[in-house]
């Protein structure tokens, strides 16, 4: 059961109502994460605005999802694993073996570049950004550059907000996402 209020359109603070209505219109439902984040209209705005920037950074759409699924799995956020797996599956048509490796934090044997990105994402989280020279060099050797480094950090920052909010709140996974949730 959720430990933080999961707002609906009927209970949402007025400062967050327009944002929540836009989510309903775009998705056909309101993910419980949005209901939780709307407890702080600023947190909801941060999520949506940084999310837009994250979606148009130097990484491909698939690489953005590599960062998001990796961070969610690494941070133990089943809600975000489910949501980003759905995006990777339906919108981006990412290969199932890649998605399963990300969800399980195992090697992505079919794509060395995605593997390097997932590994670097976990190193950023584990070391709070203080990666070694060798770890940074390995990431760049996989074909990434300085802009990609910072855009990966931005993705981790966005994931941290969502993962931690869901972990603190024990946010229930919506029925629309449950088929994409990790099987435990």
From TrEMBL:
<dbReference type="GO" id="GO:0051920">
    <property type="term" value="F:peroxiredoxin activity"/>
</dbReference>
<keyword id="KW-0575">Peroxidase</keyword>
<dbReference type="InterPro" id="IPR029032">
    <property type="entry name" value="AhpD-like"/>
</dbReference>
<dbReference type="InterPro" id="IPR003779">
    <property type="entry name" value="CMD-like"/>
</dbReference>
<feature type="domain" description="Carboxymuconolactone decarboxylase-like">
    <location>
        <begin position="41"/>
        <end position="111"/>
    </location>
</feature>
<protein>
    <submittedName>
        <fullName>Alkylhydroperoxidase</fullName>
    </submittedName>
</protein>
<keyword id="KW-0560">Oxidoreductase</keyword>
<dbReference type="Pfam" id="PF02627">
    <property type="entry name" value="CMD"/>
</dbReference>
<dbReference type="InterPro" id="IPR004675">
    <property type="entry name" value="AhpD_core"/>
</dbReference>
């Amino acid at each position: 059961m959720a430990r933080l209020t999961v707002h609906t359109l009927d209970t949402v603070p007025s400062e967050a109502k327009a944002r929540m209505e836009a989510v309903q219109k775009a998705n056909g439902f309101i993910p419980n994460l949005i209901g939780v984040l709307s407890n702080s209209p600023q947190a909801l705005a941060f999520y949506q605005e940084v999310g837009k920037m994250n979606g148009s950074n130097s990484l491909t759409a698939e690489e953005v999802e590599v960062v998001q699924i990796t961070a969610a799995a690494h941070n133990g956020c089943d809600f975000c694993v489910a949501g980003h797996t759905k995006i990777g599956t339906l919108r981006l048509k990412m290969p199932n073996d890649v998605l399963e490796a990300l969800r399980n934090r195992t090697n992505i044997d079919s794509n060395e570049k995605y593997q390097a990105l997932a590994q670097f994402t976990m190193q950023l989280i584990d070391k709070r950004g203080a990666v070694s020279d060798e770890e940074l060099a390995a990431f760049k050797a996989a074909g990434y550059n300085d802009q990609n480094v910072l855009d990966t950090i931005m993705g981790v920052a966005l994931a941290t907000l969502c993962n931690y909010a869901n972990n603190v709140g024990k946010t229930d996974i919506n029925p629309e996402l449950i088929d994409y949730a990790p099987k435990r």
